[in-house]
Design goal:
Elements: E1 5-14, H1 20-28, E2 34-35, E3 50-51, H2 57-63, H3 74-89, E4 100-105, H4 111-114, H5 127-130, H6 139-150, E5 155-159, H7 165-178, E6 184-191, H8 195-203, E7 227-235, H9 236-239, E8 246-255, H10 268-281, E9 290-292, H11 299-312, E10 319-321, H12 324-327, H13 334-348, E11 380-386, E12 391-398
Parallel strand pairs: 4-5, 4-6, 9-10, 9-11
Antiparallel strand pairs: 1-7, 1-8, 2-3, 6-7, 8-12, 11-12
Helix pairs in contact: 2-3, 3-6, 7-13, 10-11
Length: about 400
């Protein structure tokens, strides 16, 4: 029997809460975080709903425990808040007592800051004002800021594979623990909203001008969101005597490279990722209690993922929902955020609803859960995260035996 990897800490911030407690309260109250833009000046301010964290950068700086003079990107601030909560939740008081790493994922990086500086790019008189921010543009800068905030020195890595990024960071962390390279890892991801992503997804014509409705026959697109989600992964030895949420029992990644942005119509990549996750876990599809689907609400993604699920589960799909109608699609952060949701589903024996679903997709055998379900027996949760370019990942979380 192979080595086990346990989840011992959770940290999250999104449009539905600044921490785990607020997030659970939003689920229990069926309170979506999708609304109008407040903290980004955009021509889309009123016409495109988003799931924005309800705090300014100044407020996030205070929440992260820094003085008001501290300056960093919104992506980094969100990540610092979630990672600090995860470390505290895991009961870690001395980060250096064990070999500890951080693997953070992002797709936006610091562009939310640097995109506001491009008008000054050729103005050499202002170069002193903007040049110092350029280093914050690249994805790894936010990882370094998060690592510094929690004191991690042993291992740092950044993953950017579009919307599968956080799931891949969790997968890499688990593999490193199993190989004995490290004792514990803070893994997940962070992404902030930016004009670049809002305009880019608008150009792709996959943004819904109403609240998104995943797996609905009349779905029209996704709502963008922002936030961060991190989990603390620990080896069996490191986790002894500690509170344990669940085990990360399986994981898998594939890349069908069907299209630059679209998923393959037959869901080939999604199927392969899930197949690999089941192989690692030793579980069967029939063992899964609940599926936290990628479920973006776009025409192509929901059909592709749904087709793959019907194939994998032989049209006997267990309880399934997409939580993106609560948080929006948080891009590189979604796998980390939904890993937190998966652990909470197991701990609290609950299944989160798919909001706004009305019309059954005729191509699929299943209907997502429309109501919050409590007192369920949740032993194993499958969490899917699929990215542009066909990079697809699946994680399986299991109740500790």
């Amino acid at each position: 029997m192979g080595k086990k990897v346990y989840v011992t800490g959770l940290g999250i911030i999104s449009a539905i809460g600044n921490n785990v407690a607020e997030t659970l309260d939003s689920f229990n109250s069926i309170r979506s975080g999708i609304g109008k833009l407040e903290h980004i000046a955009s021509r889309h301010q009123t016409e495109i709903p988003v799931a924005e964290v309800k705090a300014s950068n100044e407020e996030l700086t205070a929440m992260a425990g820094f003085p008001k003079e501290y300056k960093n990107t919104r992506t980094a601030l969100l990540g610092i808040i979630a990672a600090k909560e995860a470390v505290k939740d895991a009961g870690i008081t001395d980060i250096r007592e064990l070999r500890t790493g951080i693997i953070s994922a992002t797709s936006v990086g610091g562009m939310g800051m640097t995109e506001n500086l491009w008008m000054d790019y050729l103005n050499t008189e202002k170069s002193g004002d903007w040049l110092r921010y350029i280093e914050s543009h690249e994805c790894g800068d936010s990882t370094e800021a998060i690592a510094d905030s929690i004191g991690v020195k042993d291992y740092l890595s950044t993953i950017s594979t579009a919307c599968s990024s956080s799931a891949n960071s969790i997968m890499l962390g688990a593999r490193m623990i199993k190989l004995g390279l490290i004792d514990r890892v803070i893994a997940g991801g962070t992404d902030s909203l930016s004009k670049f992503t809002i305009n880019g997804f608008s150009t792709l014509m996959i943004l819904d001008k109403e609240n998104c409705k995943p797996f609905d026959a009349q779905r029209k697109g996704l709502n963008l969101g922002e936030g961060a989600g991190f989990i603390v992964l620990e080896s069996e030895e490191a986790a002894k005597g500690k509170k344990i949420y669940c085990e990360l029992s399986g994981y898998g990644n594939s890349n069908d490279a069907y299209h630059q942005t679209a998923s393959s119509p037959d869901g080939a990549g999604a199927y392969l990722a899930m197949e690999k996750a089941f192989s690692v876990s030793g579980l069967k599809p029939s063992d899964i209690s609940y599926i936290n689907a990628h479920g973006t609400g776009t025409e192509i993604n929901d059909l592709s993922e749904g087709t793959a699920l019907d194939r994998m589960f032989e049209k006997k799909v267990p309880m399934i929902s997409s939580t993106k109608a609560f948080t929006g699609h948080t891009l590189g952060a979604c796998g980390g955020i939904e890993a937190v949701f998966s652990a909470l589903a197991i701990k609290n024996n609950m299944v989160f609803p798919s909001l706004n679903h009305v019309h059954q997709m005729p191509e699929l055998s299943f209907t997502p859960e429309k109501e919050l379900r409590k007192d369920q027996k949740i032993d194993h949760v499958l969490s899917n995260s699929f990215g542009f370019g066909g990079n697809t990942s699946a994680l399986i979380f299991s109740k500790k035996n």
